[in-house]
Amino acid sequence: MPRKNFICGCYTERRNRYLEPSLLLLLWQKPAHGYDLLTSLEKMGFHESHPDPGAVYKKLRHMEEFNLVKSHWETTGGGPAKRLYRITKLGRNHLKNWVAVLQKRHAALENFLQQYTTLSDENQA
Q1: Given strand 32-33, what is the order of strands in its sheet?
Q2: pLDDT single digits (tens) 79-104
Q3: Is the pLDDT of residue 55 over 50?
Q4: What pLDDT does residue 20 have?
Q5: Residue range 19-124, CATH number
Q6: Which of 17, 39, 63, 64 is most buried (CB neighbours < 10 A)?
């Protein structure tokens, strides 16, 4: 028996699915502090609201463990020390692999949307 008021969860894709490649891309553009990365992630468009800072810092630590990024404490200027992150050569290679996967996914999504549009147009007539 179908459930009443069943709502598809398809529009709530896993929020952090593209966190790793997004961070790598941002760090390839320029080294950055965690706060700057949080702000830049919002502008990438993968999150409908603010990215979860805990998930971002956890991902940065994870990527550092695997030598995809490096960080050091920056103590110049006023205020408390801040960790500055930068991408490594291994991180750039990993990002290249991510891009290959995303290009395949993009092609599959384009194919899916084209098939849907064709069916939708035919059913409108």
Answers
A1: 32-33, 82-87, 69-74
A2: 889 999 999 999 999 999 999 999 99
A3: yes
A4: 95
A5: 1.10.10.10
A6: 63
Q: Print the SS3 string covering 3-27.
A: CCCCCCCCCCCCCCCCHHHHHHHHH
CA distance 120 to 112: 12
Q: How many CA atoms lie within 13 A of 45 on its CB side?
A: 0
Structure tokens at 1: 């028996």
Domain range annotation of the chain: 19-124
Tokens coding 22: 């997004």
What sign results for the dihedral spanned by CA atoms 13, 19, 20, 26? positive
DSSP letters, 87-120, are E-HHHHHHHHHHHHHHHHHHHHHHHHHHHHHHHH
